[in-house]
Design a protein that fits this description.
5-stranded mixed β-sheet, 6 helices
C-alpha cells in the first residue's frame, strides 16, 4: 500500500534550486572522482560512525576517499564529536537540511501519511532518509557516488570502486541473493515508459520534428 500510494505521486520534476538549503560543515569537492555518501535520521551516531570507521580503516588510501554524511540536525553534534576525536584527519563532511528537502517531495508526503496506519508494520521504512540515495545525483556532482547503508560493516578497500570498469552501466550494487529486484523496481512500469517513449519518437518523426540521422 505504501508503495502504490507513493508511486502515484512519484513522477514530479525537482524544482529549480532543489537541495540548495542543505548545509555542510565542509563543502564536498566536485574534483573527486568518487564520493562516499551515507544518510540516516538516527539520533544515535554510533551505527553511522561504525560504517565510516570500517570503510576508512580498510581503505588502502583513506586520505583519497571523501565521505559525506546527511543526518538530522539533532544528531549532528554527537557525530561531529566522534569524528573530531577518532578520525581527525579523515575527509568527512556532515550535512543537515536534506530531511526537510525530502519531506516536501510529493511521494514522501504520501508515505508520511501512512505513519498512523496499522497495516504498515515497520514504520521506520517510511522515513524520507530511506529514499535519499535516489536524490543524491541531484545534489552531488561527482562522477561516482558510493552509497552505504548504516547497517553494514565494510571489510575491503572500497577505493577500487572509483576505477572499476562498468561499461555503459549507470549503476552497480552488492549482490544479495535473499532479495528480488522486482520487489524494488516496477519492471512493467519501466517497460511502459519505454514503449511510450518509442511512440513519442515515432510521432515526432511522422510530424517531421525528428531526424533520426542527426546525433
Amino acid at each position: 500500500r505504501a508503495f502504490r500510494s507513493s508511486k502515484r505521486r512519484s513522477f514530479h520534476r525537482l524544482p529549480a534550486g532543489w537541495g540548495s538549503s542543505i548545509r555542510c560543515d565542509v563543502e564536498p569537492s566536485e574534483r573527486d572522482a568518487m564520493i562516499i555518501a551515507i544518510a540516516s535520521d538516527e539520533l544515535d551516531p554510533l551505527p553511522l560512525f561504525a560504517v565510516v570507521n570500517s570503510t576508512l580503516s580498510n581503505a588502502a588510501s583513506p586520505e583519497t576517499l571523501p565521505v559525506i554524511l546527511y543526518v538530522a540536525k539533532a544528531a549532528r553534534p554527537a557525530l561531529a564529536a566522534l569524528v573530531r576525536t577518532y578520525l581527525p584527519r579523515a575527509r568527512i563532511s556532515i550535512c543537515i537540511g536534506l530531511e526537510e528537502q525530502l519531506r516536501n517531495r510529493p511521494a514522501m508526503k504520501a508515505l508520511a501519511a501512512l505513519g498512523n496506519s496499522s497495516r504498515v508494520k515497520r514504520k521506520e521504512l517510511l522515513s524520507s532518509f530511506n529514499f535519499a540515495a535516489f536524490y543524491l545525483p541531484h545534489i552531488l556532482r561527482n562522477e561516482r557516488i558510493l552509497y552505504l547503508d548504516t547497517d553494514v560493516i565494510v571489510r575491503r578497500d572500497v577505493g577500487r570502486v572509483a576505477t572499476m570498469e562498468m561499461g555503459d552501466m549507470p549503476a552497480a550494487a552488492v549482490e544479495d541473493c535473499t532479495q528480488r529486484v522486482s520487489k524494488y523496481i516496477d519492471f512493467p512500469l519501466a517497460a511502459a515508459y519505454r514503449r511510450a517513449a518509442r511512440v513519442r519518437v515515432e510521432n515526432l518523426r511522422i510530424e517531421g520534428c525528428f531526424d533520426a540521422s542527426r546525433p
